[in-house]
Amino acid sequence: MDEQTGATRAAAEPSDDVSRETLVATGVLPRVVDPVVASIPPVSAASARTVVAPMSPDEELAPVHDEDNPAARRAAPTPVDPVPAKQQSVALPRPLHTRVFVVANQKGGVGKTTTAVNLAVALAQGNLRVLVIDLDPQGNASTALGVDHRMGARGSYEVLLQSDSIADDVVVSGEDERVLVLPATLDLAGAEIELVSQVAREKRLHKALKAYLKGHEVDYVLIDCPPALGLLTINALVAANEILLPIQCEYYALEGVTQLVRTIDLVKGDLNENLILTTVLLTMFDSRTKLSSQVADEVRAHFAAQTLSTVIPRSVRISEAPSYGQTVLTYDPSSVGSRMYRAAASEIAWRGAGSAVTPVQGQTGPTKPQSIEGNHD
Ligand code: ATP
Ligand code: MG
């Protein structure tokens, strides 16, 4: 946080027990805008289209008492479901080159892992080949994809620090055979420190992935990062060519983005000039609250081109699925969370069909785009 912003916030600090959110919502306090994000030229939020699907009553969280909220009424779910539950296995376009996404946001709990695993399975259900690299010592992506990552299993730690090849340590996900997972084991917790003394410490994943992609046809690589901007995340940013930034629809949503944007610029300048922030996904959107719509408008104003039309709603089914070692796509395929993650995968795949994004060096990539049949949205 820079000094000016800190000073602005200090001046705006509520002095009694009324929350900041309430004061901002009622116009007493100004909204504090992230300085880096504010420097990005705004565009008309009105031109943005938000796709939300109706929830069945049993999927909703406890009602929010926000009846007096015109914005929430305006953002009420559209009556048309963009991805009917029956369309579960529609082929998606194959990219010209492997698209390597890093799913990053150093803010914790914003939906990085949930997004990585559900998109992976949604893309696989679209008949694409996906590799998920779990770079978070918490190993949540490995758990959700039904992969064993207990002590003794090999995975991203061994690739980063023992020069294992990715091919030796990947396992097939129990969720879909077209999803391969490089699991995170508990050893990864020490990797941040152990990497410091390694040669080319920021490029170790890049080197391993480049070698893997020479010999294996993969359409999408999704790298799940820990909530920090340490060497694990830097390794992911150096190995990737696209950034997928999940932003939770809550107050302070844009706050950590300043630091992430700075880190991306540093990585672009020194280590990976091809890195582009191509995709922003709004997560945990609650159409009943004014706050969710305000955050969505603000994000769209700053990331107009990058923000997907599809918004992931707050849904009980999405949060329940990991405790069964599943993604929501297999746990409850017809739930609103499944439908919206399929819609997001479809949007990403169609946006990147014939993508101009520079491929990761050394990859051969799939040969030609797959022909598409049927209705995709
Ligand atoms: P961390 O920074 O710790 O790695 P994260 O950014 O990966 O967190 P997740 O683990 O994906 O975030 O999600 C945080 C919590 O929110 C989890 O309990 C998850 O099940 C829940 N969650 C994620 N998305 C949704 C959603 N759309 N609706 C309801 N719960 C959600
Ligand atoms: Mg996570």
Question: In words, what does this structure look like?
Answer:
It is globular, with a radius of gyration of 20 Å. Mean pLDDT is 78; it is low at 1-49, 60-87 and 362-377. Helix 5 crosses helix 16 (336-351). The chain has helices at residues 3-12, 20-25, 35-38, 70-74, 112-125, 140-144, 156-161, 166-169, 191-196, 204-215, 231-239, 257-270, 290-302, 316-320, 328-331, 336-351; strands at residues 99-103, 130-134, 171-172, 179-182, 220-224, 242-248, 276-283. The protein is of the alpha/beta class. The protein has 16 helices and 7 strands. Helix content is 35%, strand content 10%. The protein has one domain (47-351): P-loop containing nucleotide triphosphate hydrolases (Rossmann fold). Bound molecules: adenosine-5'-triphosphate (ATP) and magnesium ion (MG).
Protein topology:
Elements (H helix, E strand, L loop, with lengths): L2 H10 L7 H6 L9 H4 L31 H5 L24 E5 L8 H14 L4 E5 L5 H5 L11 H6 L4 H4 L1 E2 L6 E4 L8 H6 L7 H12 L4 E5 L6 H9 L2 E7 L8 H14 L5 E8 L6 H13 L13 H5 L7 H4 L4 H16 L26
Parallel strand pairs: 1-5, 1-6, 2-4, 2-5, 6-7
Antiparallel strand pairs: 3-4
Helix pairs in contact: 5-16, 10-11
Defining traits:
single chain; 377 residues; alpha/beta; Rossmann fold; seven-stranded mixed β-sheet; 16 helices; 35% helix; 10% strand; disordered C terminus; binds adenosine-5'-triphosphate; binds magnesium ion
Strand residue content: 5-15%
Overall strand count: 7
Strand order of the largest sheet: 3-4-2-5-1-6-7
Low-confidence sequence ranges: 1-49, 60-87, 362-377
How can the largest sheet be summarized? 7 strands, mixed
Bound molecule kinds, no repeats? adenosine-5'-triphosphate, magnesium ion
Please work out how many helical segments DSSP would assign: 16
